[in-house]
Amino acid sequence: MTTGRDSARMTGASTGSSTAGSAGASTQRERVVEAAGLTKTFSDFWLRATARAVDGIDFHIDRHEIFGLLGPNGSGKSTTIKMILGLLHKTQGRLVVFGRDPSDVAVKRKIGYLPEETYLYRFLNPTETLDYYGKLFGLDRRTRKRRTGELLDMVGLSQVAHRAAGEFSKGMARRLGLAQALVNDPELLILDEPTSGLDPIGTKQVKDLILELGRRGKTILLTSHLLADVEDVCDRMVILYGGKIRAAGTSTELLADSRHTLIRTPRLDEATIRAVEEALRRSQGVGIDRIEAPRQTLEQLFLDIVEKARAEQLATSGAQAGGRIASFLQGEEGAKQDASRQDGVAVVEELVQSVDARARATLAAPATPATPKGPDAGMLDALVSGKPAEPARPVASPKADAPPVPKAAKVDQGLIDSLLSDDQRKREGGA
Amino acid sequence: MSESASAGGPIAALRRRWADVVSRPGFRISVAVFYSLAILAVATVVYREAAYLDRFAEAVPDILREANLVAKDAAALELTEKGTVTFEGRVVGSESIARQMASLYSVAGELERAAEVTSLLLGFARPEWLPTPFADEPWLVLGAAALLLAIVNFAVFSGLAGALVGVTMLCAAIALPLALFGRTSLAISLAAVPLGLLAFAIVIRGALVALDWASPVFAIACGVVREAMRLKIAIAFAAIAIVAIPLFPQWIDPQTPLRYQVQTFLARSMDTMYVVCAFLTVFLGCATVAFEIRDRQAWLTLTKPVSRFSYLLGKWLGLVVLNGCILLVATLAMFAFLVQIRARPAQDMFDALAVRDEVLVARVGTRPEYEPLPSAELQEAVNERLRADLNAQADLRDGTRTEIEIKKQFARDIAGDYLKQLRSIPPGASREYRFSGLIPPKPRKGARPDEGGDGAVGAAGGTDGSDRVNDEGDSDEANLTLRYKFYSGASDPHATYPVVFIIGDGDRQTWTDRQIVAAQSNALPVPASTVADDGTLVIRILNAQVNPNPAPGEPEFLPGRTSIAFDIDGLELLHRVGDFGPNLVRAQCVNLLKLSFLGMLAVSLASFLSFPVACLVVFTIFAAGSIAPYLATSVEEYRIRTESQALKAFEAFIKGIAGGVEFSVRSFGEASANGPLVEGRLVSLGLVLRTFALIGIAWSGVVLVLSLVVFRRKEIAIYSGQGG
User: In this complex, how many residue pairs, one in chain A and one in chain B, have their CB atoms less than 8 Å apart?
Assistant: First the structure.
């Protein structure tokens, strides 16, 4: 069974990311974050150790991967992230980010960070907030303005761009926090509990965004204790508990149940089910553990209801639905994919135009009139043979048939659709 | 329509409608055009009037000099018969001065003191509504109009068009009814309040534009300014200064001497500005850092490419800019109302002259030069004392002290006694004191007679029995001030002692006699005309009184009862070296530098202390610095009268701590500009530069470096786990 991340990757591969993927595979992946024996012990004023939040963990994050740091509350996830960001100093071990010490200011130019709670300036509105953080990165005014607009559209806060952040709901603040994490088009995006405080729609949008950013080449480190939220998006993950790593690996490695096989079919009647079971018993010697009618998830029901309400254009004073991904969030692979996509579209356009041209040429050609038939051959035969002619059958005058119109060649819409923006399709499919 | 749009009632709907209207480009353009035309119209009227006065001042002296009364020239006749002059079709003057004008003509029919007469006539020509600076320099009108146009248009197109219109209507609603009832002064004061707040908003917008750079330091500074504007408490502090100043004139008794009214207004305004800014700096400076770290907004900032140094520097810069904006607006308001107060009637001419020459001026105090005891005489006196002092000889024999040490001490004592003697005047005797380095003041253009700015023509120059020396076309009108504080006998506060001051030499000499109260500071205006061309002035002080009815053969002066003496700083001649305006600017620069240090202290301490602790420490240092001069005196005079060694040790301990604190903050207290400004003393550029170097750079730098050492090692994020 494929996961969302896998299907996104497969989709991406079909649109041309295979070039980037193969390029990435052919070279050793650069490590963005590397931790060895990383330990953090908190002390009180008298330097007595009070808590060991992180205890000798080893992990690394490769470029272009989505890495999950999972675990329950208090397992050391946020502490690890804060050490990566330089907000805390490690007690022991080694920690390197982009090949440098985390406290190096230059490293932070490549990082975007969304904390566990969004600590915004309450007196700034979203436009001012993003402008402020853009200035911290040294972005010029034009770039800041453009990115601010795109990011607010992306997170659905355009309508409240001039409302103070202090008036926002938690979800709206979270969206703004996400926007500020992306303002510098970071190479490494660190998301601490990114779906915290979001409704199911927002959660899905964030997950889609993470997938899309990952597809575009971003390296993403995310933490969560809501495991179901991140199951579909992470390439690799570690699971922490008590400051130690308890499990590590890809989602497939960690989650696959090798002891069972799941087959999904359209609805079957009882007889068919019995036949299948009988076949299994005969061939494999096993029976069927469970038969059940799948049902829609509550999340899907929720999404359907909201979509219906939006279609009826019911107003909301809060955040709007998110828009397309901001154009500046390209990344290397995204740029290549776009380039290949552009080439593909051009080819299809040419094909379509050539087919259309032939169709138009055919349409424009004058209709060849039907050759009128000569005298009745039977009558002529009768005259020659002396046999009485059969009563003349009325000769059906040939109809002035319309010249045959060749059907216009049908353009392969499926090919075009697959070459157009994946995100638009995802959005339509996801909403 | 969404639910929120219909909420709030009619007022909210009105606000939304107003917001909708003011946001339209058409509205902004209309407002800009309207105000620009209004400014141009007013400027045109003002400039025409100022230019007329300028031409009047240039041309009329020559007209009057050329008009001969004996030859019955029209101008001379008009002046002597009607007290007026007709210039460019306008009649200027008053019949009340006609008789006086007649007496100014010589037998040959020529007018003496044409320049002074012109000054007097200018006083009649200048309308009340024309500010003095514009009357003196017409080009200032054009400059002011251009500046006002720029400011108004900036305000309109930066989003304050609605506020501008609203404030205009509010000011009109406040001022017009009061003005109609004759309460013009109150109308101006109340209307100035919303105007001051609007000016503050405009200045802040300008500051935000100036700070709009793609740099962490400037971005953080912008954030501080925005935070101050949008947090109510910060606005409240700023509003106190900007609102209080226009209202101060209403609380100053107009019956007191004008000089004291002006000084009171100056003192209250300057102190209010400084204290308000100081409190705002401490609270906001500590809050903006401490609360950001506590509430974790600092996480989002410090995880960006922002060094800890940039973070603190940006916070500090924001505070400096905010203080600068408040000081700028409040100073402009103070200056405007100073002009208004100055226009109040003075009690007499001396009062008016005191305002001009002793308050709204920049003066430097010069002490008299004392001739030291000649070396030969000093040496002789030292040797004689050594021979006569048995204790000294005993010390020499014992080896307790060397001869050089003893002679040095004797030399100091003898020289000190000699100087004290020079500062002591026996009854009936006099001493001459020489002041040098004086600068004659610049001549001024005409002022209104009731201002007394220049004194009426022919009036005494400010001292009894004196007469001014005036040259044609070169009137010298700014007085000096002699400050003195004499002691006499038991210095009985209920007794008075006679003193005669003989000022100047030769034909510039003038004199006056006073009955002084001992141990009390007094001031004596000294005509600038008495200063010699080489910048020196000789004042002879006679310990005597004028003999009221001297019989033939009797002395003109009768000796005083006791000797009079004064301290080294008891005799000082204050002379003008500059104008009030630049002095005010320098004083505010000093204040801003001190506030900047306060800001650096607040921001730095808050980076590793909690908000209340940081506030407490900063306030303590601020208070200690402000009272440093008093602290120095207190430390010096602190004594525990006891024989107990423990208490003596305690005394030494307290003195050590207090002395150390006083030494540390002494410079902060000495860099005081408000007091000298109010006293009309010079706030020198040297003081500004010293304050900049010591307090602005050195002290602030040390504080920043020390705090960075701690802040860089500080872990911004706190532990939020479950322990174990």
Answer: 112
Chain A residues 186-215 within an 8 A CB cutoff of chain B: none
A92, B66, B201 from B195: Cα distances, Å = 61, 50, 10
Q: How confident is the model at residue B575 (pLDDT cuts 50, 70, 90)?
A: confident
Looking at the predicted structure, is the pLDDT value of residue B551 above 70?
yes
Separation CA B287–CA B607 (nearest Å): 10
- Would you say B67 and B85 are in contact if contact means Cβ atoms under 8 Å apart? no
Q: What is the DSSP letter of B443?
A: P
Going from the C-alpha of A176 to that of each of A125, A139, A268, B69, B236, the distances in angstroms are 10, 18, 48, 87, 30
Q: Give exposure, B427-460, as e/b (b: 16+ Cβ within 10 Å).
A: beeebebebeebebbeebbbbbbebbbbbebeeb
Quote the CA–CA distance of B665 and B181 in Å, as a whole number. Answer: 52
Task: Give residue A321's pLDDT.
Answer: 60
pLDDT at A377: 41
Q: Provide the β-strand partners of residue A54.
A: A40
pLDDT at residue A141, as a whole number: 93
CA A250 and chain centroid, separation: 19
Specify the pLDDT at position A403: 42
Residues from chain A contacting residue B227 (CB–CB below 8 Å): 121, 123
* Cβ pair B241, B277 in contact under 8 A: yes
A84 contact B CB<8A:
no
From CA B366, how far away is CA B369, in angstroms rounded?
A: 9
Model confidence band, residue A318 (pLDDT cutoffs 50, 70, 90) = low
Closest CA–CA distance from residue B710 to any residue of chain A (Å): 14
Task: Write the pLDDT tens digit of every residue in A234-251.
Answer: 889 898 888 898 888 887
Q: Please give the Cα distance from A395 to A389 (Å, whole number).
A: 14
When scoring B6, B230, B296, B303 by the number of chain A Cβ atoms within 10 A, the one with the most, hence best to mutate, is B303
pTM of the predicted model as reported, rounded to 2 decimal places: 0.76
Is the Cβ–Cβ distance between A62 and A234 less than 8 Å? no
Q: Are A402 and A366 in contact (CB under 8 A)?
A: no
How long, in residues, is chain B? 724
Contact at CB, A105 and B213, closer than 8 angstroms: no
Least confident of A352-361, B441-450, B454-463: B454-463
Q: Tell me which chain A residues have a C-beta less than 8 angstroms from the C-beta of B307.
A: 105
Residues 220-259 of chain A with CB under 8 A from chain B are: 242
- Helix, strand and coil in chain A, % to nearest 5: 45, 15, 40
Angle between helical axes of B161-180 and B184-210 (0-180°, round to 10):
170
* Residue B644 Cα to chain centre, angstroms: 49
Q: How far apart are alpha carbons B193 and B333 in whole angstroms?
A: 9
The model's confidence at residue B367, banded by pLDDT at 50, 70 and 90, is very high
